[in-house]
Amino acid sequence: MTAATRGYRRSTGSAIALWSARFGWRHVVMIVVAAFALFPVLFVVSAAVNPVGTLSSARLWPTGAGFDNAADLFRNTPFTTWYANSLFFAVANAAATVFLSALAAYAFSRMRFRGRRVGMVGLLIIQMFPQFLAIVAIYLMFSTVGEYRPEVGFDTRWGLLLVYLGGALSINTWLMKGFFDTVPRELDESAQIDGATHAQVFFRIMLPLVTPVLAIVGLLVFISTINEFLMASVFLRDTDAKTLGLGLYQLVESQRNANFGMFSVGAIMLSLPTLIVFWFLQRYITEGLTAGAVKG
Amino acid sequence: MSSRNSAGAPGPGAPARTSPPGGGLAGSGSLWGQVAKIALLGLFTALGVWAALPLYVGGNWAGIAVVAAVLVLVYWVYLSKRTVPLKYLLPGVLFLIAFQILPVLYTMSTSVTNFSDGHRGDKEQAIAAIEAYSVTRAEQGREFGLTVATTGDPETGELVFLLTDSDGTAYAGDIEGLRPLDDATVDPASGRVTEAFGYTVLTPAQVNARSQELEEFAVPVGDGAGIRANSLSTAYEGRATRVYDAGCDCVTDTSTGVVYTADDERGAFYSEDGERLAQGWRVNVGFDNFARFLFNPTFASSFFTILVWNIGFAVAVTGLVFVVGLAIALTLHVPRLRGKKAYRILVVLPYAMSSLAMYLLWRDMFNTDFGLFNQLLGTNVDWLGDAWTARFAVILANVWLGYPYMFLVATGALQAIPRELTQAARIDGAGAWQAFRHVTLPMLMVAMTPILIATFAFNFNNFNAVWLITKGGPFPPDDPSAGATDLLITYTYRMAFSQATAEYGYAAALSVMIFVIVSVMSVISLSRGKALQEVDR
């Protein structure tokens, strides 16, 4: 900024000097930052198409192109099963969390009842004890559950999903409640005068108006679930039950150098859903991320 | 979902408040709402029955009572008209209680016990295990064909021996004793049971996974005798050499004559010269677990070293991502910059990649022999093998993954600050830096402080960030339990799941301490912030 002012005064005649003072340095900075942001991504893409498929032969810039690593990944590992597991957890948890959280946020935002304040503060306090700190207890709990109902025990999708849903009401509920508060009360009051039930107000009036916050919470939960490692590693031990993240971990754990090409393909595949979701929700992202913040 | 008047206006001329048939069920709402509600309640009842059935078979009445209580609660909430807020809160709250609050309470109660690999069950189980473990073959002991099975899940269900004696008669034996087995399929070639109603036969791999348990398992057949596995397919009857005597509350080894006396404080049998039997039981040890981390010289030194690094790590990452993210946001915060959109997409890219995979990628880029950094720099540095370069690596990877979020948030916050304010400051003679420092930054911080606190709290317990890159290492040669990049959470995880012996009691105590530390920090930051005011809006 200082440079910009000085340049402004001195170079009244020169448009180029003005441009470089005002914009030039910004381009230089951004190119450096973009290079920093990009090089690991470039490296993983280069390694994914690297025909040799080892870590030692991978270069920053691709030296050749082939689909051998992808073919190996499909042939040698239960890749599609892992991928389906990952997507199941991410989609199911995101959808259920958004729904459960929106229900609670509606009650906190629109209704006044005994225990409301305790409930909201309690939600904040329980956040300080993240679920994964209780992983030992959850592990012991589910060894018992699995004895009665193996369908929801270890190595099953439903068991781990249930545990994830334990965290459905969280700081996200606060974020949503803040957004619900911005919808004018007159809207739902007039609807209720017209005879709408509270359920109709919720589904027909509130939900459509708070789509941005639903989208952003869904996105955040999707991302954190697909990258969740700790709980999944304790719950899913059977090869076919693993998520793609666990599978990739196991892949490079055993053969760090040789399996790197396969790992890179998997890493790109694991990022793909996030990239797609990001692309479609980008107009909500800044709005949603800052919604809670700007209101302070 | 009830209360209020009917929405679908029951037709012209219909009286406003006649209650339709169906009592409490038909409060109001549209027909579809009612149908959906009845269907969901039906589904939930079916789920309850599904959950209760195996509890009934297993005779677990307490479990059934819990299931029934939850069912009654759900019916009451959704059929009463006075519970409107609860109708919205209950689904999430049920999950919260079952899978977060109860485990947290259980963790707290575990933290004051000596629960660990050598202290799993109660005293009776420990005695049974000691006796079973010491069973040695009797001279005329019977031999059996053995099939290992369980009564439930192959990995966690109770072990059962499906046995066949020399006549071909089948038995089932568990911790309670031996009983005849009627409807079993016996393979004529091997003479072993291949299938039996109500039992899950384990595959050799599954048996192997539970070999340690098998070592300590014997089917008691009375008189200090028991049946023990000899291999995967045979079992023998033998006699315990270590026998418990309730009179002296001690275990006597009949072959050596050593007497081990029960110590109910420590939860194990000790001989006179302090030798301990491996199988102990769970006892309450009060605050010993906490005391160990705070006062025992070795553990306290690792605990506080880790705590200091843990705070340093969270501060460094939060500070760096904030500075980098804000700097980029400021650089792009200018009208008519060409390529702004492209820059934005490029710098946000790390945030859109899978962080789990990217941590593993960074780990491999730092690899000594094959990694990208040594390749590009032409060096041969063992990045993750030295304490400070490993710490640098972990922080760098996290800055790469974390700054795009700060950039997005800072951009949003900057856009919310009216440009006129900075312009006015500039006209009044403030330099660019002064205008930023005294006008933009204070307004920015109002919006950013909660985000910074949240980022700090997140990184304080960022398990993946450390575990996937260094696993907490490098470790000093004399102490493989606490590494240079260990966070409290990775230290805890290793103690419970990734060590030769699982130390659940210590791990739970550490969890509680992390909870206390985070609580204290949150209370301080919350009392200075305004977050709680939002409750009253």
In total, the number of strands of chain B is: 15
Q: Report the β-strand fraction of chain B as a percent range.
A: 5-15%
Distance between the termini of chain A: 28 Å
Largest sheet of chain B: 9 strands, antiparallel
For the record, the CATH architecture of the largest domain in chain B stands as: Orthogonal Bundle
Uncertain stretches of 5 or more adjacent residues of chain A: 1-8, 292-296
Whole-number average pLDDT of chain A? 83
- Give the radius of gyration of chain A: 25 Å
User: How many distinct beta strands of chain A?
Assistant: 0
Given this structure, which CATH class of the largest domain in chain A is correct?
Answer: Mainly Alpha
Q: Provide the β-strand percentage band of chain A.
A: under 5%
Name given to the CATH homologous superfamily of the largest domain in chain A: MetI-like
* Architecture (CATH level 2) name of the largest domain in chain A: Orthogonal Bundle
Radius of gyration of chain B: 32 Å
Q: Unreliable segments of chain B (pLDDT under 50, ≥5 consecutive)?
A: 1-27
